[in-house]
Design goal:
The structure holds two protein chains of two kinds. Chain A is mainly α. Chain A is built from 20 helices and four strands. In chain A, α10 runs antiparallel to α12 and α16 runs antiparallel to α17. The N terminus of chain A is likely disordered. By secondary structure, chain B is mainly alpha-helical. Chain B is elongated and about 55 Å long. The model of chain B has no long low-confidence stretch (mean pLDDT 90). The chains are: A mainly alpha, B mainly alpha. At the A-B interface, α10 and α11 of A face α2 and α4 of B.
């Protein structure tokens, strides 16, 4: 069957005639893309899907690519800030008894480092890559609920600004990124520092939940015709599973932070054992979120690896079924490991061992993934480019982190090294190896799509080796110093303990690792300004995001592609079959069925609006005010309600038609 | 009855994670109870839940053989088989995790802290 046949066969059925009876307004139909020539189609779509000019226009944008770019840049700024926290700490620890940083500032530094990296960098950046790539990869014109998506960005930005302005005002949280009670409770946490932690969490989790909802609906309902469940790109599968994990994990930490602020502000005693509360409840609630959080960061990274490997191995990924199974299994199992963060709290040993079992068994699906990737490379003809180098770095570092994870899953060993630098080494190997290295590889891989230009390959290789050597020099010795007994979160240590030399080595490695990011930032700027033009598909990749121009137009695809294979661009080397029948004078999407992605209905996509920004300001103001008085919820409800009414009020656009 | 006769492709995807979640929560809650009454319940509960997981996997296996919901308009056999394969493997994996969790009761004393 030729592409032309497919095109005509898969035309959307003409709309049913509507009658004016009942409450339903008659639908005003407009011109469709069927039979329209490319130049006219481009003109129509560009006008319909454009972001309005001017500052108000920019602030009103609902284009998923525009929002994602803002997310990516903001998250990168937070990465730099969190990295500077780390460098400051490493300079302080580079020798015994250094007096550069006092204990109070050090407490704020390690808290801000953890909070920034986990809540303001890692989660937002993996979700942001999804916001950019998922609609392109599934062949649709915008993300689902685009105004909600815009709202999520503004809430995230205000949460991040709130935390960092607090830091500048010397009132940043100083209770660690997990802010255990009673340290963070009203008894031991005077001032507003712990409140800043609690509300910053609420901001970022609201934002994260909004993105998760939009991603899930995009993947389940907006896939291109033919993209049945067995033809979804693995990166999209990863984002789908991650979004479900976000949906079930984030409410737990929002409840934790809300309970904490109730204890601190209203005078409840939810976490106060002296009044019948339960301090351990805080840890259970926090880690029921906290452990899945690790996988929220890690699973999208595995999706990136699964996207990069087939392109550079020059063959479809080996074991698609096994990889999807691994993603789903890890997503579920991530909710059954949380107690392994609490082995030192005196829980019954038999109860704790259930979590040991799950912690060890999650290595099976993760191992399946690693072997599938290795098999893909083994059977392919690998072309070693910078993205693949970072994938190799990921293999090496993540496997070491996984092995120390299996060690820590054992209660006796965990009790010995609890709260030491061994744990710090382990989670940096897992998080940086498991997420940051794939993210860096993904940056080199998808940068041409986002900017239309290539990053420098030579600088990329230098970047990789500097990052790889710097990372291992900084974090591997932490295993040793942890086994020697050095506790985490100490601002200094006495010279007699003999930890000076190894800490100096760690600090030197940290500086090297930091320099690798300076080089990376230079390569990014150089790529944007002077990079070689990339073309649509510089890597000859097989998934749909490469079927459109680089950078993609506001409407993503001139015509909606039809998918016949998991690597559609490899299967249809000539012309990609397309579906037609969508309106061009209104923002219209094709909605498909969940399992088979059969074309189902046409649906409108929201137009640009300033209301999400106004709603985010109202929500952010309410959260900020609520660290001072619980009445903020009452007074804040009015502006929030007004902005939401403005948001949903029909504006008379074609998109508002029923 | 269609679901039993033709199989249910997603059976194992539902039963595996569900049985494992129940096993984790139930057994965690049963440890103090078993300690107080000295009645071994953790291991039998784990075995029952592992069987539940496998039962869903069996439904998926049936769907792979019989076609599952492929008789419905707009559903294809290949997607049904993909989901069934996924579900059978999930049921197996989660049954294994449940048995691993339960087998801890063979080694550790329930009252040990």
């Amino acid at each position: 069957m030729s592409s032309a046949d497919l095109t005509s066969e898969r035309d959307l059925p003409p709309e049913r005639e509507t009658s004016a009876k009942g409450d339903l307004a008659p639908e005003h139909d407009g011109p469709r893309d069927t039979g329209m020539d490319d130049a006219s189609l481009h003109r129509w779509l560009a006008r319909t899907w454009r972001t309005p000019p001017g500052i108000i226009g920019a602030l009103s944008s609902v284009d998923h690519k525009v929002i994602a770019r803002r997310y990516l840049i903001t998250a990168f700024v937070f990465l730099c800030l969190g990295g500077l926290n780390a460098v400051a700490m490493r300079i302080q620890l580079s020798g015994p008894q250094r007096g550069l940083i006092g204990p109070d500032l050090y407490n704020q530094l390690f808290t801000m480092h953890g909070v920034t990296m986990m809540f303001l960098f890692a989660v937002p950046i993996v979700q942001a890559t999804g916001i950019y790539l998922v609609p392109l990869m599934v062949g649709t014109r915008n993300i689902a609920f685009p105004r909600l998506n815009a709202f999520s960005y503004w809430v995230y930005l205000s949460g991040g600004a709130f935390a960092w302005i607090s830091f500048l005002l010397n009132m940043a949280p100083d209770v660690g990124w997990f802010a255990y009670v009673p340290l963070s409770g009203p008894e031991f946490g005077p001032g507003k520092r712990a409140d800043v932690w609690a509300q910053m969490i609420t901001y970022t989790e609201v934002s994260s939940l909004a993105v998760a909802v939009a991603t899930i609906v995009t993947v389940l309902k907006q896939r291109a015709p033919g993209m049945s469940l067995d033809k979804i790109p693995l990166y999209v599968w990863a984002l789908l599973v991650t979004s479900f994990v976000v949906l079930f994990a984030m409410p737990a930490v929002m409840i934790t932070s809300t309970f904490l602020i109730l204890d601190r502000l209203v005078g409840t005693h939810i976490f106060n054992p002296a009044e019948g509360g339960d301090a351990l409840l805080f840890q259970h609630l926090f880690w029921f979120f906290g452990h899945p959080e690790v996988y929220i960061i890690f699973l999208p990274a595995t999706g990136m690896v699964s996207a990069i490997i087939p392109v550079f191995a020059r063959r479809p990924v080996f074991g698609y079924l096994g990889l999807v199974l691994s993603l789903i299994a890890v997503g579920f199992l991530s909710f059954g490991l949380w107690v392994h963060h609490m082995f030192a709290t005196g829980l019954p040993k038999l109860g704790a061992s259930f979590f040991t079992a799950s912690s060890m068994m999650i290595a099976i699906p993760n191992g399946v993934q690693i072997f599938c990737w290795l098999a893909s490379l083994w059977d392919g003809r690998p072309v070693i480019r910078t993205p693949l180098l970072f994938v190799f770095g990921f293999f090496f570092i993540f496997v070491i982190g996984g092995l120390s994870g299996v060690m820590l899953a054992s209660v006796p060993l965990d009790l010995q090294v609890h709260d030491t630098y061994f744990v710090v080494a382990h989670f940096h190997y897992v998080l940086i190896g498991g997420s940051v290295f794939p993210l860096l590889g993904a940056t080199y891989f998808w940068f041409p799509k986002i900017t239309g230009r290539m990053m420098s390959e030579r600088l990329g290789r230098w970047h990789f080796w500097l990052a790889f050597i710097g990372f291992n020099a900084a974090f591997f010795p932490m295993h040793l110093v942890g086994l020697w007994g050095m506790p985490r979160r100490v601002y200094t240590y006495p010279a007699e303990l003999g930890w000076g030399n190894i800490n100096l080595l760690i600090s030197a490695g940290a500086v090297l690792f930091f320099l690798s990011f300076v080089l990376f930032a230079f390569n990014l700027v150089h790529g944007v300004l002077r990079g070689v033009p990339a073309g649509d598909n510089p890597w000859d990749a097989g998934t749909l995001e490469w079927a459109t121009s680089s950078p993609p137009p506001s409407y993503n695809f001139t015509r909606i592609p039809v998918v016949t294979n998991v690597e559609p661009l490899w299967a249809e080397r000539g012309t990609l079959p397309v579906a037609t029948g969508l309106r061009v004078d209104a923002r219209e999407l094709l909605i498909s069925t969940v399992a088979e992605a059969h074309p189902d209905i046409r649906e409108k996509s929201a137009t640009p609006s300033i209301w999400p920004l106004l709603a985010a300001i109202a929500v952010g103001g309410t959260f900020l005010y609520s660290i001072f008085t619980p009445w903020a919820i009452v007074w804040g409800a009015a502006p929030i309600a007004i902005t939401l009414i403005g948001w949903f009020w029909p504006k008379g656009d074609p998109e508002d038609e029923e | 009855m269609h679901a039993l006769r033709m199989g249910t492709s997603w059976g194992g995807l539902l039963s595996g994670p569900m049985a494992w979640a129940i096993s984790t929560q139930l057994n965690y809650a049963l440890v103090p109870w078993q300690c107080n009454r000295q009645v071994p319940v953790v291991l039998p509960a784990a075995l029952v839940l592992a069987s539940l997981s496998l039962l869903g996997g069996a439904l998926s296996w049936r769907a792979k053989r019989q076609g599952g919901a492929a008789f419905k308009p707009g559903r294809t056999r290949s997607t049904e088989q993909f989901v069934a394969d996924l579900a059978m493997l999930a049921a197996l994996l989660f049954a294994l995790v449940i048995i691993m969790q339960g087998s801890a009761a063979l080694i550790l004393d329930e009252c040990l802290r």
